[in-house]
Each structure stands twice: as structure tokens, then as C-alpha cells.
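re the bet — no i am not wrong, look at it urself. input seq straight from the record:
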Amino acid sequence: MKLYIKEKVFSWGDKFTVKDELGNDKYTVAGEVFSLGKKLHIYNTAGTEVALIKQELWSWMPKFSLFCGGRQVAQIKKAFTFFLPKYTVEELGWEISGSFLEHAYQITKAERQIAAISKAWMSWGDSYELDIANPADELTALAAVLTIDCVTESDSGAGVSISSD
């Protein structure tokens, strides 16, 4: 199954729309403008929050927690590496690696591909294609892509958020 993630360019805070393979709305993502660290809320088409991605502030490398139904289900961490960026989703044993400069990377678990991610080069706002092997992994894989977008946005110096919790 595929999801298509598109950033809304002219908006306060991070905003994304997520569509399925047929072009139907699947999720909307809204970031908090005034928060301590990044916080992204993922809503279904009925407007119900289905997940929250929250940056953990007191860590050496970027770390984000994923909450579903008010319960923490995973932590997505950027690993310390000298050359190619790498992320882990520790609770699930997932690794995220590939060529982030070429905008092509994958999520794997024990050599088995969970999802493949590609980012469009020439687009107005960030656009991703997420190809997920198992629909049960949809929300966590989506959260991983959004987390990487947050980290790369912070690394580039773009999108500084004003913080007050």
C-alpha cells in the first residue's frame, strides 16, 4: 500500500496532507506552532487524533516519541554515525537507512523491508511517497517519515519553532 505525504507550504507550523493510492484523503498532520520542541498531531479523516509525535528535548541525538491512544508505542532516534544518517525505532526493532541526500531510504527489520520512502526532488513543499509492505505498520511508518522530515528541517536551519509549553 502507498501513502503520499505533501507539506502545505504557506501555513503556520508544520502541516501535511496524507493521501492513499487512489488520491483519497487519509490523514492530516498539524504541528504545534508554540510548543517546547516539535509536536505533530496526526488526525484521521473524521478529525480524530490517532497519533502524536513529540520531540524529546533532553537527548544528545534527536529523539521523538510516538503516542497512539495516549500510550507511547515507539521512540524514533537518530543514531550517531559519521557518514550516512541512520535512525532506529527501538521498540519495534526497525532500522531506517539509505541515502537521505538522494531522498531514497527504507525501513527494515532483520533484513526484511517494512517500507520504502522516496522524496520528490522538485516540488513546492516536501512531498514523500511511502510504500508500506504491511498495512498494520502504516501509522508507525508515517510517523517515522514525519520525524525524519522534522530532523532534516532542523538540521537545515529551516522551520524554527517558537517554544512555550
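see?? The CA atoms of residues 94 and 109 lie 5 Å apart. told u. also Residues 156-165 have pLDDT under 50 and may be disordered. so pay up
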